[in-house]
Write a structure and sequence with these properties.
Subcellular location: Membrane
Strand order of the largest sheet: 2-5-4
Largest sheet: 3 strands, mixed
Protein name: Omp85
CATH topology of one domain: Ubiquitin-like (UB roll)
Number of helices: 3
Organism: Nitrincola nitratireducens
Pfam families: POTRA (PF07244)
CATH architecture of one domain: Roll
Helix content: 25-40%
Radius of gyration: 27 Å
Keywords: Membrane, Signal
Length: 113
Amino acid sequence: MKRTLTLFLVSLLWVAPAHSDNVFVVNDIRVEGLQQVDAGNVFRNFPIATGDQVDGAALAAATRQLFRSGFFEDVQLVRENDVLVLVLRERPAVAIIRIEATRPSRKNSYAKV
């Protein structure tokens, strides 16, 4: 029984450092890929701020929240040391432009000058 408990405790020591590597404190947030959307809209819809301690679950939730804003087609979060980089691709501002021509009536013909 003592041996099993000892092996269990040793295995916990090996697992704990591997899990703690995924948690980090965000010292800065950098946004890349903005063209039309204001950076203020990004930070209003992004729940993580500088100084927050985040893990994989918090980053996944933040990504979902940015997608729900409706401004972005693609959202990627990249960690560069303690800097969180938001790589964003915006949705098109105008999806389709339809131009329809009308025939001028004979009364309003501009050819007669």
